Amino acid sequence: MDEILEILEKDARVSVKDMAKMLNKPEEEVEKTIKSYESKGVIVKYKAVLNKSLLEDRKSVLALIEVKVSPQKDAGFDAIAERIYKFEEVKDCYLVSGAYDLLVVVEGRDLNTVSDFVAEKLSPLSAVKGTITHFLLKKYKEDGVVLKRKSGAKRINITY
Length: 160
Prior knowledge:
This protein is an alpha+beta fold. It is built from 5 helices and 6 strands.
């Protein structure tokens, strides 16, 4: 992978000026390369990784949903995947190998919001043959970044 992409993937806040110094390249060349990657769709978005467990006012529930589907004639899995990933609750959607076909990451306000999504929007789709929902209980690492936890209650020692 290109050195510029490696730097941006680790920290998208690195300035063009700093990147040029790091790579010993002219700023104009670095900026032109970045613009080229953006226009080609290689760089899709810049984002911050948030540790939402530290935000008091923004709690949400994440679920990983395994979805078994019937592929569509002349469209394979793409057509049903597109229909599913257009729902606003869907954060990520992947075609996977194994017993299920799609892995869908869904975010909701609470458990009921996610279960309503599965019951009222996802399961009724004619191509969907089955689902298994896994709720995320705790995040330790996201996008290669270890999420620090706020210090809090300690586990109680068990004595016999």
